[in-house]
Specification:
alpha/beta, 31 helices, eight-stranded mixed sheet
Length: about 700
Amino acid sequence: MMYKKFIGVLRISGSLVIISGSGWFVYQICKTRYILSHTVNTDVIYHRKKSEYIYINDPQFHMMYGKKQMYGEEQKQQSSRLPAIFGFWKSLKRSYVRRLLSLAQAEDRSDRLKAVELLSKLKNLKEWDYRHAAQMCDARTAVGLARTEGADLRFFLKPPYCHLNPSKEELTDRLCNLLISLNSLKRHPCINFFLAKAFPELQHRHIVFDADLATMQLPQIPIKKDDVLPLSIENLLHYSTIDDNAKDIVKLGGLPLIVDLCRYFEDNIDINIMLVNLLCNISVQDDMLQDFFTTGCIGLLARWSKHSNIRLAVPAARALANIDVDDIPNVKFSHRLHLLHPTVRRIDVPKLDVVFIHGLLGGVFITWRQRDRDHNNLSILEGVTGFDDGKYMDSDVSDEQTKQYLQDMAEFKQDEWDNLGSDFEMVLSDCPEESNSKGKGPYSYSGCHRCVRQALEDCITYSVCWPRDWLPEDCHHLRVIGVNYETNLSLWAPMCPVEKVRRNLDFRSTELMQKLKQAGLGSRPIVWVAHSMGGLIVKSMLIKAMQDEDEQVQGLCRNTKAVVFYSVPHRGSPLVSLTQATQLLWWPSVEVQELKENSPALLTLHSQFLDLVEKKNIEIISFAETKPTLLSSLHLQFHFVPKESADPGIGEFFEIPQDHLCICKPNSRQSFLYQKLIHLIQKYIPTNE
């Protein structure tokens, strides 16, 4: 009897489990059906649309098709044995993807943006589903996915004929022919010189070069055979930076060649950096989207934009932004500008532009990096290494007590950190030795302040570009732009004859002003951040913008809220006043000669700038160096910008115990150099009305 009762209980329990499980399953199906009915057109689910494919007329693909067809028949037999519910679920997912792809190509821009965002969130699709979606994408949808955070790289088609692997000799020959064709369209002395040196056999093809090549100020070193292809790429990049030459590269079929070069040098980071900058210069030209799409460049740029090397990721993101017609139309970032943030599409619209301009011998990824622990061993004439791998070498901490405090606090949770930290007052590093009467803090924070804990994180991870890594985290609704330009200390350095006449301050400021206008600068509040000679360029641009007749150019001056100067030589630098023997050794460049102390041109520029600041009520913050900088080639310590020259005579002025190189490199977010800038930026971010 007990056995029978036990069997009865099991039957009843089993029935209840089956009934409740069936009810739960039906409920989930109904709930899923309800959600999808409010997201996609349910008619698509029951109406099988004809699939879209790219048909390739290639014998190799036809040979492979027979094997794939046999494999497909076996798959059909296996799939017929699966329960119908799984086939329904797969069909539902594919229909959802097709619906989103159709919506991404709709006429309404907001619908397109929303569809691309939903597509980027699709995960765990089959490989076939991704490839099918890639084949159905149009150019506008593809670049939108490339600029949306989290999008799977399988959404992008591979370049045409990616199964072919051209040899180095074939690539060299194709690139040589391209350079010859470009040089015949617009003769350029550098290209002319390089072709004559690298391909002497061209003389037998009756290709004539200029007779005065030997008189040019270009290096006469023989070119090795292994260096011909990399140098050819470098010359093509140089050609693309001048005027609108980049569009000629596309007209002559250069994009497929660039894609083949990217595949050949896939593991060579230095050449990839040149190639991505070449694509950037081409992307500035109008109507390049379709060409980038058909040649497979969008997939390459999408992969590069996620690279750990900032010199590859930032230009790739910039090129994608230039061809993204759905994000911010009529905005282009030329080869002088780096879009540091945002590098992807964002829902929130930037409310403030922060523009960083470096100084002599600087660069976006050199000047604005986090300070190295051994920074005293660096010099103005030495190359900088060891900061491209994204790992921090070590960090400065103000003293041993602070270092020990941070190590202890790292073990606490957030609430424990706040309770304990509130009993301490942390003095910021890089605090000024002196300041004028207008100088204000912050000079210290409570131990539970956010920047104190961030300083510990900054000791672990190294920032190769703190405006990109730190500013967006501490200040929202920003657009951060870095300006890049080439400089030389000496005229002995090899220099393009075309570029030589463009190295003066007047030409640089005019050129950058037009490029910043092209990037849409002037339509919202602006904060300028400049180091050394970059401050002179900012002053020259603002004065010219105020006098310009173009309303948009005037916006550069009208919307300027503040300027931050890091050791800017307002009244010149003693660099030009070295001994006569040193001047003969260096043969100072145009940039150096313009920095002569008490130069009439610099004094006039500064007087006009002071009038502009008073008239437009622009806030000024200035930092001056108090430590000398090591000149390694001369084995001496040198003050590049004395505090008398770094003091503009207006606004807040601080004397910082750092040299010329490190005055713009905070050791962490607990640095006074950084926190003062953060306070200024937060002050001018418009609040929601």
